Amino acid sequence: MQFQPGDVIKRPGPWGTDHFGLFVCIDVLGQQWVIHNAKDECVRWDLLESFAAGSSISLVRRAPNGYEGAVFVARAQSFLGRRFDLVNFNCEHFVSCVTNGSAISPQLRGAVVGLAVLATLGLLVNSSPSA
Predict the structure, then answer these.
(1) Within a domain: 44
(2) Cut 0.85: pTM above it
(3) DSSP annotation of 23
(4) Given pLDDT bands bounded at 50, 70 and 90, which one contains residue 131?
(5) Which residue range forms the structural domain that includes residue 105?
(6) Residues above pLDDT 90, as percent of the chain
(7) N or C, fewer C-beta in 10 Å, the chain?
């Protein structure tokens, strides 16, 4: 698949999660570049192959048009060097800031809800009367 500047892409991450990035360009040598928020590091440039980490890459959302794609790329560049923070600024927060202007992470929200449900069930099981 041919990606376009500003496209949101993803690859499988650990524990059933996805890792998100923004496709930026193809350089004069034909190398494809991505900007992403690398776990435990920061927002940085990487070759598409490095971003993929041996996994397949899929398109999440196409940039609406050429101009909008360029705007997304410029926004992504403005975050270069910003530190990864699982709760407040992970890879999903990064791409949502770039494309929507607000930091949201549905994966993180789902994980927190799931943990809350498990904790509640654990409390209910432990507090039930013994026979």
Answers:
(1) yes
(2) no
(3) E
(4) low
(5) 8-127
(6) 66
(7) C
Specify whether the CB–CB gap between 40 and 34 falls below 8 A.
no
**Angle of CA points 104, 24, 19, to nearest 5°:** 40
Kindly report, residue by residue over 21-64, the tens digit of the pLDDT: 999 999 999 999 999 999 999 999 999 999 999 999 999 999 98
Structure tokens at 118: 């498990």
Could you tell me if residue 2 is inside a domain?
no
**Is 1 domain-assigned?**
no
Question: Which of these, 18, 32, 23, lies nearest to 90 by C-alpha position?
Answer: 18
Residue 112 pLDDT more than 90?
A: no
CATH number of the domain where residue 83 is located: 3.90.1720.10
- As for how many domains the chain has, the answer is 1
- Please report the DSSP string for 44-108 in residue order: EEEEHHHHHTTS--EEEE--SSHHHHHHHHHHHHHTTTPBPBTTTB-HHHHHHHHHHSS---HHH
Domain assignment present for residue 3? The answer is no
* pLDDT at residue 115, rounded to an integer: 52
